[in-house]
Amino acid sequence: MPCLIALIVFGIMGIFSASHRALAKEAFDCIFRRVTFRACNTGFQDKIKGKILSKIISRSTFLAKMVNKHYEILSWIFFVLMIGSTVYVLNGGYNFYVYGSCNGLNESGFCAFDPKGENNKTTAVGDSTCGITQNEIKNVTLNGVELSSFPTQNTGSEDTVVFIGCYACDYSRKAYPDIQRLVEKKQANYVFAHYPAKGDTTFLGNAGYAIRKIYGDDAFWKLNDYLFTADLDYILDKANLNAILASFNFDVKKVNELANSTETKNMMDMEIAELNKTNLYGTPTIFINGKSFVGPKPYRVYNSAINKFIFF
Q1: Which residue of 12, 213, 272, 311 shows the fewest CB atoms closer than 10 Å?
Q2: What stretches pass through the bilayer (predicted)?
């Protein structure tokens, strides 16, 4: 077992040092002998053991004696620890690539590849600030949610993406371009839902509904793209709404009348009630073929949720 540990250690160190490459070759020879049921080169084992003991004896004679006496057992212990830590690191790396978190999909907790937890941050529903929420993900679902009233792009695909976001949420704005890219690349069915999780964005949702009803879906999608990419402070200022509408050549008076009507208020209340059935706790919340992704994940995570093969 010391030979295997030495092979791994010296194999890595040998990349940078010629002297360690020679030791790596000796370790490989030792491993080869072991797997072919032959005795390992005694000289090499003694060499490795001697290097270890020489370091220890200068600090503690007693410890050196204990290591010498239980050398084989200690070698096995370190081997098991090395294998365990390697598996743990590989599992964390896989989870990070596929789910955006070392701990699994939508799981918070420390991740060396994402130490600040950016891939799981959301704007908490009912909160005026952005931050990580600790709510349970297991209850977030589309079951029993009626989405027919929301803006939809139906391509006839077997894949469906549902994006629930807030115009004022930095994390929704971060995820939006990746979702647009995913939908365009995969030609997936797409449903968008605005949830006013942060600040006063209800007036933007109302305007979007009015534009969709008056001018159709194409006009709505153009406005939607603008609201997620334009300067945040500008679009959140109600005084700028008329200028925004005019820049798209919309009838400002007509849009405002419908946006401020009882019909629109009732429709928006109904849509919010439907979204609350998902048990979402923050935006963005994205569903890909019914599977929930909370927070702005890297594009590869969304892509792998649709791909049959994770890495292609």
Answers
A1: 311
A2: 73-90
Task: Report the predicted TM-score, pTM, of the whole model to 2 decimal places.
Answer: 0.71
Q: What is the DSSP string of 58-123?
A: TT-HHHHHHHHHTHHHHHHHHHHHHHHHHHHHHHHHHHHHHHSSTTSTT--S--TTSTT-GGG-EE
Q: Is residue 221, in this structure, part of any structural domain at all?
A: yes
Query: Helix-strand-coil percent breakdown of the chain, rounded to 5?
Result: 55, 10, 35
Longest dimension (CA), the chain: 92
What residues form DSSP beta bridges with 292? 287
Is residue 292 classed exposed, middle or buried when 0-12, 13-18 and 19+ CB atoms within 10 A define those classes? buried
Q: Domain range spanning residue 24?
A: 2-99
71 and 143 co-located in one domain: no
Half-sphere exposure of 289 (CA within 13 A, CB side): 13
What is the Cα–Cα distance from 150 to 193, expressed in whole angstroms?
Answer: 6
Contacts of 41 (CB under 8 A, 6+ apart): 26, 29, 30, 33
pLDDT in tens, 177-230: 999 999 999 999 999 999 998 888 999 999 999 999 999 999 999 999 999 999
Q: How many other C-beta atoms lie within 10 A of the C-beta of residue 50?
A: 10
Is the distance from CB of 124 to CB of 155 less than 8 angstroms? no
Quick check: bond before 284 cis, omega within 30?
yes
